[in-house]
């Protein structure tokens, strides 16, 4: 079997593939569900989501195939990525490109092959979605259309996965940048990059969800009609064929799994939108230096985007006063203060876990109103702060963290933001090896500079 030519844009194509950071990752239900559906909908025993690397094709998901990768050179998929056209092979034994392939002459004895290019958002074919069978077959227009739809779903999952990863990467970088202006620019960029594709994915999935109900109702009506005709002894042969096809399609399985797949896709879209909304709220600043804003909402947004810092070692509990008045503040700067404290708490908890003091952490954020002041408390059960260091923690560049975990600017900036810019107070109560509680107060009435 001759190897497929290498695309002229190979290096850029590989770079586009690398952006997804998906090669050699574990199986994911969202991709496996599509290959299972492909086998049902296209009536084939094999379906694969294949990503074409420099020397191999690697399978993100596969049904009916026992290997996770094969050499690229003699692969069907290396031909699929050469153009935007569908690769439709009715009988591989009669195709000179594939007749002597080990996948044709030996297990799984591929005869029928239908491959759709998987195109990245940047315009490169990074792999293929394919359906295969050991029986020769001519793909119908309906088969090709269905395969394209399933390939589009795979591409949407890839883009959703990439968007989420980019959000996580950018968010992770933000946590280590202690310049508040950087967060605003990042949030704006994320919102711009994610909102539009998420709208497309959401709208298309809603359309598929609504359309499926229509098709389901239509099929159920056909089933009712067929049963009625069969009971009357009419068109017995035709009814038998219809019944056989219905059994092969496994309609109960499809009726059960397709709504679940669509529902989970919509839940994923909603989650991304929540993250984008949280980033917008996190970075929002009013036209004035201080604008009366919902402090609780700002804290909720900060907790949402900081999840990667604390969710692996702690639970985070919010006790937010629902009657707290809106607070005159620069919400983006206050969000940075809360973010820094959540991050410090998570790092302190990790140290306590590694020291064997606790097995799981707890972070509590509480808001209340006292004496015409808004009060924020951030408490953790981490390592705590030695008494000898309490007076130093707000000094610029002072830090007790390991090298690379911070530059000691976070609490200094927080102190300046709360005390000097907002005319509030910032204090801490801590007992070594028993955690710390930071307490912030903010005046509810505007102060003149």
Tell me what the structure shows.
The chain is of the alpha+beta class and 449 residues long. The chain has 3 domains: 10-151, 2-Layer Sandwich (Beta-Lactamase), CATH 3.30.450.40; 201-280; 286-443, Histidine kinase-like ATPase, C-terminal domain (Heat Shock Protein 90, 2-Layer Sandwich), CATH 3.30.565. Helix content is 48%, strand content 18%. It has helices at residues 10-19, 29-42, 77-80, 102-105, 141-175, 180-231, 236-249, 251-283, 295-305, 307-310, 331-354, 410-421, and strands spanning 46-52, 56-63, 69-71, 87-89, 112-119, 125-133, 291-293, 314-320, 327-329, 361-370, 373-380, 425-430, 436-443. The strands form 3 sheets. It has a 6-stranded antiparallel beta sheet with strand order 3-2-1-6-5-4. A 5-stranded mixed beta sheet has the order 8-10-11-13-12, with helices on one face. Strand 12 (425-430) and strand 13 form a beta hairpin. Helix 6 packs antiparallel against helix 8. The chain is elongated. It starts with 9 loop residues before the first helix and ends in a 6-residue tail after the last strand. The model is unreliable at 403-408 (pLDDT under 50).
